[in-house]
Write a structure and sequence with these properties.
two-stranded antiparallel ribbon, Pdz3 Domain, alpha+beta, elongated, disordered C terminus, 2 domains
């Protein structure tokens, strides 16, 4: 059975409820979850779908076996969706950390910041992101990450690189001022939404190339694991411009 990949991919990247790929499900659980993908109850199908996404790459062999043997359209459809999600998670999403703020480098002297050092003002906190969950607020001024400060004159993009070069789920310690109070929070960073990879602009060119490369590699990966060589790369035009991953929303290019 051939499934319309351009349609499936638009559905497959549903909201994911953890910043990192959770611990794999036991093998017996994977087989049971796959059997529920065609369940008569929509709630049971959705629950099994989500749990298989969380199982991650460890579930691929069982998913492939079930895809090859199942005659149920709903089951095959959901296996395809789950597998696409796992592919993009493993090859793209988990590698680029994401905090979820809009920020700018301070350009005026600030008595809270040590001489020769930089500070970065939080202009906005994006709902549903790691930053919001940790309690960062607009107006906070970040002065150190994991004990590392940045020199005066450092740019917003240089600050962002401290975060985006870390894998999703990495715990990072942020030191910042809220008013005159110096505070410290450990934040487990999330993952970057697809919208960032499709953006044009200086800061996004490398991300966009990563995205395009992973898109092109999907048919080969699918054939190697599922044995069906009819699958084409996902059609970018079919992807929703507001795809929501981990309840993250698109940001501007300078945001980590």
């Amino acid at each position: 059975m051939n499934l319309p990949t351009y349609f499936l991919f638009a559905l497959s990247l549903a909201p994911f409820h953890a910043a990192t790929n959770p611990a794999p499900q036991p093998e017996a659980d994977v087989d049971r979850l796959i059997s529920q993908l065609g369940h008569s109850s929509f709630a049971d199908r959705e629950s099994a779908d989500q749990a298989l996404r969380e199982a991650g790459i460890s579930a691929i062999d069982e998913l492939a076996a079930a895809y090859r043997t199942s005659n149920d359209y709903e089951t095959k459809l959901r296996i395809h969706q789950v597998s696409e999600y796992i592919y993009f998670w493993e090859n793209l999403l988990k590698s680029n950390g994401f905090l979820g703020i809009q920020h700018q480098a301070l350009t005026q002297p600030d008595i809270r910041i040590d001489e020769g050092k930089a500070g970065f003002r939080v202009n906005a906190v994006i709902p549903g992101t790691a930053a919001e969950q940790a309690g960062l607020k607009m107006g906070d001024v970040i002065v150190a990450v994991n004990g590392q400060t940045m020199p005066a004159g450092a740019t917003a993009q240089e600050f962002a690189s401290l975060i985006k070069d870390k894998p999703a789920g990495t715990p990072m310690v942020f030191e910042f001022f809220r008013g005159t109070q110096r505070m410290t929070k450990e934040i487990r960073i999330g993952f970057r939404p697809l919208e960032f990879y499709r953006q044009a602009g200086t800061d996004s060119n490398d991300l966009n190339e990563q995205y395009q490369q992973v898109m092109r590699g999907f048919p080969e990966w699918w054939t190697a694991n599922f044995g069906d060589d009819t699958v084409q790369p996902p059609d970018e035009d079919s992807l929703s411009p507001t795809l929501n991953l981990e309840s993250l929303v698109p940001l501007q290019a300078e945001e980590p």
